[in-house]
Predict the 3D structure of the following.
Amino acid sequence: MRPTPHAPRLLCALSLLLLSAPGPAPAAPPPSWPKLAEKTADGFLVPQPNPQFQFPKDHGSHPDFKVEWWYLTGHLFGPARERFGFQATFFRRAGMPPSHGTPQSSRFRTDEIHLFHAALLDAQTGKFLHHERLARAGWEASSSTEGLHVRLGDSSLTMPDPAKEQFRLESTLRGEAGFSLLLEPLKSLVIFGKEGVSRKGNSETAASWYLTYPRLQTKGEIRIGNRKIAVTGQAWMDHEISSSQLTGDQAGWDWAGIQLEDGREIMTYRLRKKDGSADPASSLTWVDTQGKLTHFGSEEFRWEGCGAWKSPGSGASYPLPVELVCPDPTSGKTVRLTLQPIAFDQELRGKSGLAYWEGACRVWIEDKPAGSAYVELTGYSGDLSQGLR
């Protein structure tokens, strides 16, 4: 029996309100953001409008910016109807801009930190494995400025042949599991945000360059213990470059990358203030079959949790499943999407930071199967603002 968003657990007052309430309010005027600063107070560059990217070089690292990540998620299928969800994220965080010089105590030691997170969900069993690793740039970790070659330990993300738009992901999870995947875009790279800048709040520095391949054909191998499984499927890939992701009054965010069966995608995020309200910088963007973007502001869509799952590990309570109500630019109608976790226990609990939920989901539109998604919920086990300002 398929899981259903109408299970008794989810028949809450909120879902009834969502089903009976009118659609999102009429479009409000866009927020009047302050002009972007050129640099942060500690000297890092701030993303500016109308960037002139040069690929494949700009798939690589940008050390003049403080925070950068390469993020991949996907849904994979094996020959015996196996289903898996995977996540891999390579983070780079600098302590000081390159213009401030390099520590002299060791020619191998720098203040640049690399962090790697990986997770694998076996949908058949509900087993969820995750792994993190932290290292300074040097022997164990690096990110090239000349093209995509990011590594930490024996996990890496590369472009094997810069002349081909293909990506290779290699990952291990504490020796318990791993995946080796080749990813090839089915849709061209898109850049989210107005004039190429994704604003994250009412601050002159809270912004990023947000580059995404919303749909990649994926094939390769998953290893669980001694078992190896050939898999195929589709993935999502983000590359985000920033020096300040959150403002002082924000505590975290809710994000979703949605791949619909009709060939369209949705990227949406709700930036949450400390009082629980949504920041006006929250956003929803449709990507049509040709890669054209249609943007909706914070007043034009609703993100609501319908129910709650409490982590037995961190104690955090996550608003799951997710109900998303938004305009459909193709039909012109308001639609309701339910993002239903394939398994609820997909929380990453690491030693280097706060726990967060990152999970594979099925997508329903008006209660009909419509696609797949990955959902990220952060800031529920503690305030993230200090780490991303």
